[in-house]
Design goal:
Chain lengths: 308, 603
C-alpha cells in the first residue's frame, strides 16, 4: 500500500457484522486517516489489515456502478463517494441497507429489485419501425436523466412504503418508477404501462415525501420528473370526467366467453400475473399484433393481485 | 478424496461473465433456442462495462461522411501495429454498425446530430468522428439496455454472485464449469454443452488500475488451466489519463472523451507537450503514445505536484463541459474537490485494458479446445498491440453475438451436456478449501492473501508496467515465482459464507498465472511496439512484427511460443491507405515492410 497522504490521525469505524441467523454486533476498527479518504477506502483497509472476513459489495469505486450502498451515520450513501472528512468528527457507523434482508455484514439481499425489473414490460418499438431512427436531442436529454440510474437502490432503501411498510408485493419503488418513466417517454416505445404502474406498481402509495430524490447519488429528480408525471398520466387517463364517461359507454364485458376466434388471437401476457418465469413472455405477441389495441382490450379485465 | 455436496445446474450454453459480452452472447444463444445460464461474480449490471465512458466506435458516417468500415479497419490495424487478427478486425468493422442500430432498437439511447441521427465524437487515432455515445456514460447505457433485453429473453437464466473457478472437461472437450455461490459458499457445478468465456480482463495485478475487484483474469486462467492457448499477453494497455490524487482515487479513469471533446494536456511548466510527441494527432494520439508521453514528462521533472500532467477543459466553457462530461464533473467534485470547469485535472497513466487473452478463431470465438468460446476482453486478437478507444464496446457486441451463436450451434450438434467427473470436482473442492483453517476470529497463521496481492501489485507495477527491460522483467518473474510458493500457504479466518478473504485466495492464484504469462511474453518480445515499451529494445523489430506470442501450459510448466501471423491478404492490403494516419514511410515494421512482404500493393 502506498504511504502517500497519511495525515497521522486515525478514524474509528463501527461496522455492523454478522448474519440474521448468528446475530449482529457492531465491530470497531481504527483506521489510519489518509487525505481524501472515502468510507470504502477505510473498509478496504479493514479487509486487508484487520478483518479479512468483513463482507461488503463494491465494484468500480468511482460512483458508476452503484454496488457499495450502505447506511453511513444513518444516511444511505455510496461508500465510494462519501468522504470521511465530510462526516461529523467522532466514530463513523457503517450499517447495511435496512430495507433489504441481511445476508452478512454489509451485504443484503436485493434480489426483489431484479424481479420487479423483469415484471416491467421491456422497450418495444412498432414492428414496422426498425430504424435507423431520427430522434431529437431534446428527447434524449429528457430520457437521459432516467437512464443515468446506477441501480444503487438507495431510493428503494429510504422509501417508507418499502422501509417501514414492506409493501414489496404491491409497490415497485422509486427506482422502477424511474425505469417506467424512461420507457413511457421514449419516443419510439409503443406500449402503455400506466395502468400496471398504478395497479401492480402501487404508484398511488407514493405520497411524494421526496426522500428518494434526496438520497439519489445521480441527482435524478425522481419525484418531480418520474413519479409525478406518471401520476399525472394515471389521473389523466382514469379520472378525467369526459374520458371516464366515454370509457363507461364503450366498456366491454368484463368476462368475455373464450370463443374459438379470440382464443386463437395472440394476447399480451396477463399483467396481473407478471412474467416471473420468462418463458411466459410471448415475444410473438409483442411483434406481430397491434399492441395498443391489445392493451386497450385488457384494461378493464384486471384485478389487483392482492385482492384475489 | 472426499466429495463435498454440490448443486448441479444443467444448460445448453454456460456463459461466464455478466458484462456486455456475456449478456450479448447469452441473448444470441437463447435466441438460437438454447437454454442458457449466465453466471457472474457481482450483481447483474455492475460489470466493468459500466466504466466504459467514451462510446462505441462504428463507422456510421453520420458526422463525417468520409467514414466507412474500410477506414475503421485501417485505423484499427494501424493502431494495433499490424499484430491484430485481420479477419477479426474485418468482421468487427463491418458488423459493429449493425450492432449499434440493434442496440438502439433494444432501447439504447445515443446523443443525436441536429438532424436527429446518432451523434459521433472524435477519439484517439480514429480518422473520423466515429464514437456513438450518450454523454460520458455509454457503457452504463449499453449494459442497462442489454440487461433489460436479457431478462426478457426466454431461455436465459441469470445466476448472480457465483464465482466459477475451473472448467470441467470430458475427454478433449469442455463440458461445464464449477465454482461456488458467494452468498453461502456452497459448491455448484454447471453442466453444459458449450461454455462461452466473457469474463473480462485483468488489471488487478497492477497497483494503479481502473479495474474493479473483478478484474482478476479468472476466465483466462481457467482456460489456461484447461489447456487452451493464450495470445498477446504482453500487451497491457495503460490508459493515459487516470486520477492521481487523492491516494484513494489513484487510478480511477478519466475518460478519453475529455480529450475527444477538446481537452488539452499540459506539463507543470505550462507546455502543451503532445505537440512535440505527436504533431499530427496531438492529444488524440493512440493511447500507448499519450501514456508514454505523460510518463516521460514526469520522469523529466516536468510533472505536477502529485506526479502527473494537467488535463484542461476550461477553454470549452462550463456549460459545454457539464453537458458533455457530466460524470467527470461529478467525479472530480466528489472525490478530489476539484471543479473541472475552473481548475485543470491532474492525470497520470493507469492500467485499463488487456489486449491479449484466449486465442480464438475469428468468426466463432472458438478457443483451441473444443466446446470453449471466448468473447470480449478475455479474448485476444482483435486489438493487436494496442486498442483504440471505443473498440472495446464494439468488440463485446460483435463477438459476444458471434460466440453466443457459435456456442449454441456446438451445443446443439456436438456438445450434449454430460455427467461431470467427480474426481475433477473433488480435487478442485479440496484446492479451494485449503486456505480455510476453520478459525472464526483473530489472525490465523499463514499468508494473508491481501498481502500477497499487494506484493504482486508492487512487482508488476514497478517491473512489468509501462516501461520494461530484461532486468526488470526478470525481477518481476522471480517475484511471481516466489509469491507462487508463498501462495501455497495462504490461510484466512472465517467460514465460506461471503468471506472476501477466502475469495481473494483464488483471485491471487489466478493473477499469479496471468502475471507469469504477461512477464514471460514480454521477455520474449524484445522490441517496443504498441503498449509494450522496452527500454533495452526501443525500436520495432521486423521479425517480431510477424509473430504473436502464445502462452501454453505444458504439464505444470508455462511455455511461451511464437506463432506466425497470416499476412494481410491482397483484398485488404490497399485498405490501410484509407486511414488518415497512413504513412507508407512509417508503417509498423513487420510482414509488410520487409523483404518477405510479397503482398505489397504492386504485386
Amino acid at each position: 500500500m502506498t504511504e502517500a497522504g497519511l495525515t497521522g490521525g486515525t478514524v474509528t469505524l463501527r461496522v455492523l457484522k454478522g448474519t440474521t441467523a448468528s446475530g449482529t454486533r457492531e465491530a470497531e476498527y481504527e483506521v489510519p486517516m489518509v487525505t481524501g479518504m472515502v468510507v470504502l477506502d477505510a473498509i478496504h483497509f479493514v479487509q486487508h489489515n484487520l478483518d479479512t472476513d468483513l463482507a461488503c459489495r463494491w465494484n468500480c469505486k468511482a460512483a458508476k456502478c452503484g454496488s457499495c450502498s450502505a447506511e453511513v451515520n444513518g444516511r444511505p450513501v455510496l461508500m465510494c463517494k462519501t468522504r470521511i472528512d465530510d462526516l461529523a468528527s467522532g466514530p463513523i457507523t457503517v450499517h447495511p441497507l435496512k430495507t433489504f434482508p441481511l445476508i452478512k455484514d454489509l451485504v443484503t439481499d436485493v434480489s426483489r429489485n431484479y424481479e420487479v425489473n423483469r415484471e416491467i414490460k421491456p422497450f418495444t418499438h412498432a414492428p414496422d419501425d426498425r430504424g435507423p431512427w431520427r430522434i431529437q436531442q431534446v428527447d434524449i436529454d429528457r430520457l437521459y436523466e432516467y437512464r443515468r440510474c446506477i441501480e444503487c437502490f438507495l431510493c428503494q432503501d429510504v422509501c417508507h412504503i418499502l422501509r417501514t411498510h414492506h409493501y414489496e408485493d404491491r409497490f415497485y419503488g422509486p427506482r422502477f418508477f424511474v425505469r417506467v418513466a424512461g420507457l413511457e417517454m421514449h419516443p419510439k416505445d409503443v406500449l402503455d404501462r400506466t395502468e400496471e404502474t398504478r395497479e401492480e406498481g402501487g404508484l398511488g402509495y407514493c405520497n411524494i415525501t421526496k426522500c428518494c430524490t434526496e438520497v439519489c447519488p445521480e441527482h435524478i429528480h425522481i419525484t418531480d420528473n418520474a413519479i409525478i408525471p406518471l401520476k399525472e398520466r394515471v389521473a389523466d387517463r382514469d379520472w378525467d370526467p369526459a374520458r371516464f364517461a366515454v370509457r363507461m359507454l364503450l366498456r366491454r364485458p368484463t368476462h368475455r366467453a373464450a370463443s374459438p376466434a379470440t382464443a386463437a388471437t395472440p394476447t399480451l401476457p396477463d399483467p396481473a400475473k407478471p412474467p416471473r418465469n420468462r418463458g411466459d413472455w410471448d415475444e410473438a405477441a409483442l411483434t406481430n399484433v397491434d399492441i395498443t389495441e391489445l392493451v386497450k382490450q385488457q384494461i378493464h379485465t384486471r384485478t389487483r393481485p392482492w385482492e384475489k | 478424496m472426499s466429495l463435498e455436496p454440490y448443486d448441479t445446474i444443467d444448460c445448453d450454453v454456460l456463459v461466464v461473465g455478466g458484462g456486455g459480452a456475456g449478456m450479448r452472447a447469452a441473448v444470441a444463444a437463447a435466441e438460437a433456442g438454447c437454454s442458457v445460464a449466465v453466471v457472474m461474480k457481482s450483481l447483474l449490471g455492475k460489470a466493468h462495462t459500466v466504466m466504459a465512458e467514451g462510446g462505441i466506435a462504428a463507422a456510421l458516417g453520420n458526422v463525417d461522411p468520409g467514414d466507412s468500415w474500410e477506414v475503421h479497419f485501417a485505423d484499427t490495424m494501424l493502431g494495433g501495429q499490424l499484430l491484430n487478427n485481420w479477419r477479426m478486425v474485418e468482421l468487427y468493422a463491418h458488423e459493429v454498425i449493425d450492432r449499434v442500430y440493434e442496440l438502439e432498437r433494444w432501447g439504447g439511447l445515443f446523443d443525436r446530430t441536429n438532424d436527429g441521427r446518432i451523434m459521433q465524437r472524435a477519439f484517439g487515432a480514429h480518422s473520423w468522428k466515429r464514437l456513438c455515445h450518450v454523454g460520458d456514460r455509454t457503457g452504463l447505457e449499453l449494459i442497462r439496455t442489454l440487461q433489460d433485453k436479457l431478462v426478457h429473453t426466454p431461455g436465459a437464466d441469470v445466476h448472480m454472485e457465483y464465482t466459477l473457478t475451473s472448467l470441467l472437461t470430458s475427454g478433449d472437450r469442455v463440458c461445464g464449469a464449477m465454482g461456488y455461490r458467494r452468498s453461502d459458499g456452497r459448491f455448484v457445478v454447471f453442466r453444459s454443452g458449450a461454455v462461452v468465456l466473457a469474463s473480462g480482463g485483468w488489471g488487478r495485478m497492477y497497483r494503479y488500475t481502473s479495474n474493479s475487484w473483478e478484474g482478476t483474469g479468472d476466465g483466462a486462467a481457467m482456460a489456461y488451466d484447461a489447456g487452451a492457448d493464450l495470445i498477446d499477453m504482453e500487451f497491457v494497455q495503460f490508459h493515459p489519463t487516470g486520477m492521481v490524487w487523492p491516494p484513494g482515487a489513484r487510478g480511477i479513469l478519466v475518460t478519453e472523451a475529455v480529450r475527444g471533446e477538446g481537452g488539452l494536456l499540459f506539463n507543470a511548466e505550462g507546455e502543451r507537450f503532445m505537440l512535440e510527441y505527436d504533431p499530427v494527432k496531438k492529444e488524440l494520439s493512440s493511447r500507448d503514445v499519450v501514456a508514454r508521453s505523460i510518463y516521460k514528462e514526469v520522469k523529466a521533472g516536468r510533472g505536477t505536484p502529485h506526479g502527473g500532467a494537467y488535463l484542461d477543459v476550461r477553454h470549452l466553457g462550463a456549460e459545454q463541459v457539464r453537458k458533455k462530461l457530466p460524470s467527470m464533473v461529478e467525479q472530480f467534485h466528489a472525490l478530489a474537490s476539484v471543479d473541472i470547469t475552473t481548475e485543470p485535472m491532474e492525470v497520470a497513466p493507469t492500467i485499463h485494458y488487456t489486449m491479449g487473452g484466449v486465442r480464438v478463431e475469428a468468426a466463432t470465438g472458438a478457443a483451441t479446445i473444443p466446446g470453449l468460446y471466448a468473447a470480449g476482453e478475455v479474448a485476444g486478437g482483435l486489438h493487436g498491440a494496442n486498442r483504440l478507444g471505443g473498440n472495446s464496446l464494439g468488440d463485446i457486441l460483435v463477438f459476444g453475438k458471434r460466440a453466443g451463436e457459435a456456442a449454441a450451434e456446438y451445443a446443439g450438434t456436438r456438445g450434449r451436456a454430460r455427467a461431470a467427473d467427480d474426481r475433477q470436482i473433488a480435487a478442485e473442492q479440496a484446492a479451494l478449501l485449503e486456505p480455510l483453517d476453520g478459525s472464526e476470529d483473530g489472525a490465523s497463521a499463514g499468508e494473508n492473501p491481501y498481502k500477497l496481492h499487494e506484493d504482486l501489485q508492487a512487482a508488476m507495477q514497478d517491473d512489468a508496467g509501462i516501461g520494461r527491460s530484461e532486468e526488470s522483467l526478470e525481477r518481476a518473474l522471480a517475484a511471481i515465482l516466489a509469491l507462487r510458493e508463498r501462495s501455497a500457504r495462504m490461510h484466512v479466518a472465517g467460514g465460506r459464507m461471503l468471506n472476501p478473504g477466502w475469495h481473494t485466495c483464488r483471485d491471487v492464484t489466478n493473477m499469479l498465472t496471468i502475471s507469469e504469462s504477461i512477464v514471460r511474453s514480454a521477455l520474449e518480445r524484445r522490441e517496443s511496439r504498441g503498449s509494450q515499451w522496452r527500454f533495452d529494445y526501443p525500436e520495432q523489430d521486423a521479425e517480431l512484427g510477424t509473430v504473436n506470442m502464445i502462452t501454453r501450459r505444458d504439464g505444470t510448466a508455462m511455455r511461451v511460443e511464437r506463432a506466425t501471423i497470416d499476412p494481410l491478404p491482397e483484398r485488404l492490403r490497399p485498405l490501410l491507405e484509407r486511414s488518415r494516419f497512413y504513412d507508407a514511410e512509417k508503417l509498423p515494421r513487420g510482414y509488410l515492410t520487409e523483404a518477405g512482404a510479397t503482398t505489397g500493393a504492386g504485386s
